[in-house]
Please model this.
Amino acid sequence: MLKGAFFTAALCTLLTALTSPVQAAPEPAGDHAFTSCPAGRQWHAAILMSGPSPIYDEAFFYLVKALSAEGLSTHSASAVPPSFILNEEHYQEFSKVSAADCLHFLADGLYSGQWNNRTMQDQGDALRLRAEKGGIDFILAFGTPAGLYSAEHNRPIPVLVCAARSPETTGLSPTGNYTVRPNLHVTKEPLRFITELNMFYDIFRFKRLGVVLDHDPLMQLTQGLGYIKDTAQKRGFELEICYGDVYNQSRERAIAENSRCLKDLASRADAVYLTAHHGTDTNNYLKQIKPLLDAGIPTLAPDSQSVAMGALISAATPSFESWGRFEAEVIEQLMSGQPTTGIAQYLYNPQVMYLNLRTARAIGWRPPFEILSAADVIYHNFDSQHQLRTSSFKREQVE
Model:
């Protein structure tokens, strides 16, 4: 009796379900929540980066900060603190938060070439095929290898190349403020790196400039070999190059190679250009460059941190803040329907001269008055953690 009642109840439930109107699946939040976004919808982006780099971490931090100020990433800013690292773990957490913003960085949307040509090709191909299927509005490409891949292959959607060193001397972008390549925008700082190298030459008038370069020609372009060669030819100095495996994925190997090369260059160069690569030992920086200090060789560094740790001089930008605002404006123009060919590429960033007086004394150089007065930030010792410095920039003052 109980069994029959149970069967009858189950049958009634089934018939009710079959004859009831079909309930529509809830519409995605984007159909209603993003009407105030550009074009009245949510936008989707992915990232192709050349490999892990603190430069890209800082650039992305300031980009998200600027996007938040424009109302495009209001929720995401909280997920990108100054300590944010552009890696898989941090990116996935960020992607979840950005799903509520006008600009959503897609889950599994971070592709990295790991500073390896084969990996760059594979990752670039995978992202390009994904983009061809739809669902991605544009790609952010960080660095020269990612930019060159994007320039050389078919681009089904816009690619915005950023943080690429001197793209007009690497073949990444022709000279000019506007791109002639459809779906490709390259943010460029015209003459920035050439200006700092010319400044270095004007101060020291060296005959032989030492440079540490990776064995891989693509990584050499990342280090700025194009504009280094151009400047050497125009100014009449020779290049003393030491080749090393300074982009090796083993950090210990890269550091050892850089140390070997700096020791080698100390015996045959008048000055050394310390380009950015993986072989810089930030934990033992002074020890690494000691052969150059002992030989009385002036050094040009790519950033302020290197000068704080013992390099002699740099003409770098204070931060990526102005770049972040510029790139956010590029994205906003893209969302407003502007093609990449109609968006300006030139970014004019202020350059700041950093000088380490302790290093100057160590190499036996007395900076002339005009150099001291031109320096925006002057460091007085080698300890970047407890640095005594004078500055005309409030953000550089020691608290």
The domain at 192-318+351-396 is CATH 3.40.50.2300 (Rossmann fold).
